[in-house]
Structures are given as C-alpha cells and as structure tokens.
Amino acid sequence: MPSPACAKPVEAANLPSRYLMLWRRNSSFKPGSKARTMSSHPEILPDAEAQCRHLADLIRPQLSRNPALVGIYSGGAWIAERLRELLDLPEEIGLIDVSFYRDDFAEKGLHPQCKPTVIPFDVEGRHLILVDDVLYTGRTTRAAINELFDYGRPASIELAVLVDRGGRELPVAATYGAWAVELNDHENLVLGKQDDGRLVWRMENA
Predict the structure, then answer these.
(1) 39, 192, 42, 170: which is closest to 103 by C-alpha?
(2) Which of the two ends of the chain, N or C, has the fewest CB atoms closer than 10 A to its terminal CB?
(3) CA 203/CA 83 separation, integer angstroms
C-alpha cells in the first residue's frame, strides 16, 4: 500500500532496538549493504549462543513488568532456559507442547515425541514472553497462545524468536528477534543441543 503523501520518513534512530530489525527488513537497502539484517541462503550459520545473548539484551528493558518466560518445545524451551540464566530470573520457566492445539492435529495426529505442558506460575493477569526458535507460518505460535489461554487470561503475550524466516500464513509477528533470513521452502533451520549444553544451528533439506 503506498505511503500517504503527508507521511514523514521513518528514521532508524527513532525506533526502539527491538523494532529496528523489522524496519530494516521493510526498508530499501543496496545489495551487499552491511546494515542489512535480512540474509538469503546463508552459507555460514550464526552462533546460536550469541543470538541468545542478543535476545536477552532486547528483553532486559522489559523486566520491570516482571514477565514470565514460556518456551515452546523443544528449541524454544532450550532458548527460554538460556534466557532465564542470562537475565538472572529467579522464577522457573513455563514449558509448552502445542501438539493437541495444532490446526492439523486431526490430519496428522499426535506427535510421537509429545511432552507435557508445565506452567509453574499463575497466567491470569501476567505479562508473558513466548519463546520459540524459528518463526515460520505462525501456526505454532497461534496454537501456543490458544493453549496459554486455557490456563488464564494473561495481561499480554509477546513473542521472542532467534530466527524469523518469513513465509507467514497467519498475522503473527515477533516482538523480539535476533535474525531474519530468507529460505527456500525445502530448507529448514534446526536448533540442536550439544553434549556440553551449547545450542547450535544446522540446515536440513526437507
């Protein structure tokens, strides 16, 4: 949609850091510009641990609202636990499995590695940060939000992800994101956990 003639140009310096990535993704950058955050078909995958630290830096200014972290199994659960350590949060994180809430449950049935959802705090009136590894179609996020509302009515829900790969099928956007990348439909970024506990990315072809 064309911008109104009277609209003032948006300056990156006036945007909060958590929105800067989104501004850059929708702005015009010359090919190869170092300022670009949207990359395509990465040959070298980023350091997932460094991304977690960056995500923690984005979330830290919001700690005055006493948010609770909820990680989506399994990558989101690992990231949420790492964020809890980096932010020095005393409260246990919530863990959520969306298997029963997916809109393709009737078609695909129960995932063989289904895990129990654990919410160790009162959701009612609470500010929540939902954590996942990769934001893609938005359907997993929708399922997680539906499940959270079965536990109560939160004051707000924000979304934190390490990677936004585009390809949205639902109107879902991350509040906090570490990396935006364009991938082909057959490419999948998979977060793994090494024996020493470090989080690492790998690329898989579907």
Answers:
(1) 170
(2) N
(3) 23
Q: What is the distance between the alpha carbons of residues 12 and 102, in angstroms, rounded to a whole number?
A: 37
- Rounded (to 5) percent helix, strand, coil in the chain: 30, 25, 45
Give the Å distances, CA to CA, from 25 to 115, 174, 180, 182. 35, 13, 8, 11
75-94: buried (b, 16+ CB within 10 Å) or exposed (e) per residue? bbbbbbbbbbebbebeeebb
Give the relative orientation of helices 48-59 and 75-86 as an angle to the nearest 10 degrees.
Answer: 60
pLDDT, one tens digit per residue, over 151-163 is 999 999 999 999 9
CB 161 within 8 A of CB 144: no
Task: Extract the tokens encoding 6.
Answer: 């009277």
Q: Whose CA is closest to 123, among 142, 105, 106, 146?
A: 146
State whether residue 49 is helix, strand or coil.
helix
pLDDT digits (tens, 9 = 90+) for 6-60: 333 333 333 344 433 433 333 332 333 332 345 555 678 999 999 999 999 999 9
pLDDT-derived band at 111 (thresholds 50, 70, 90) equals low
